[in-house]
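Hey L., structure's done. Input below.
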Amino acid sequence: MPHAHGADIGGIRTLDDLRARCVINEETGCWHWRLAISQGSPRVHVKHPALPGDNKSTMRGRRAALLLATGRDLPKGQFAYARLCCAASDCVNPKHARSGSRAEHGEWLRKTGKVKNLLSKSAASRRTWDKRGRKLTPEMRQEILHSGEPHSALAQRFGVSKFVIYQVRKGITHSAVMPGASVFNWRP
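Output:
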């Protein structure tokens, strides 16, 4: 029988409810969530007295597992992540989850190597290096502006990325050396 629009059809209230919605891997002990996943993480609709307001919330799977196992929500500034024994991103077994601060989570990421060699992290590192590692003097910027050399040759000569050379030539960055550059003469 279909339910009426807006009717409260439940939510997960106990660890047994959570486990019933998972596929259990007997070898690893992982509870693989088989319902909603958002951005690679399980999304669990929980109804529990420890939650504020109407006692309902949608949260990430490991946080929900810890809430149901301990009977209380995580303190402010803490979040749930996997223990070193668990490599599954969809696991909601409370024995495979722990909570901690951002610093503890960073240490966990370093130990597991989950962010090592990620393309997005490498690109961010290069951008940071260009900003902090190599400074362009006003003379270098003027030489870049007046040179007919390709971006790659200038980048190699000055020890910066081709993108930095592009930014200087387009006036996107380092605009203080551009003739007539001012914050008052920009175009929308």
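The helical segments are 15-20, 61-70, 102-112, 119-132, 138-146, 151-158, 162-170. DSSP finds seven helices and seven strands in the chain.

-- N.
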